[in-house]
Amino acid sequence: MSVYVVVDIEVKDQEAYEEYRRLVPPLIEKYGGRYLVRGGEITSMEGDWDLHRVVILEFSSADRAMELFTSDEYAPVAEIRHRAADSKTFMVEGV
Description:
By secondary structure, this protein is α+β, with helices and mostly antiparallel strands. It has one domain (3-93): Alpha-Beta Plaits (2-Layer Sandwich), CATH 3.30.70.100. Helices cover 37% and strands 32% of the residues. It contains 3 helices and 4 strands. The chain has helices spanning 14-30, 62-69, 75-84, and strands at residues 3-11, 34-38, 53-59, 85-93. A 4-stranded antiparallel β-sheet has the order 2-3-1-4. Helix 1 runs antiparallel to helix 3. The chain is globular and about 35 Å long.
């Protein structure tokens, strides 16, 4: 079953974040993920959202997504993101 990783990112250091954006796509692809949303204008329709930059990734399974996010090769790339931005992430199963 497909899963979707949803991330809200508040960029604090644009230069460092650009490095992360350059390094992460090949890793996402390697683990079978693909971008559905990568930034773009946000239109709040209901409720009190405090969103910044939204990214949505699709993976074939939760296992594949977790393989990426817990991999040794992603760890140094994730560290760049942690320094460059504050983020909130969740994973949800599709239908």
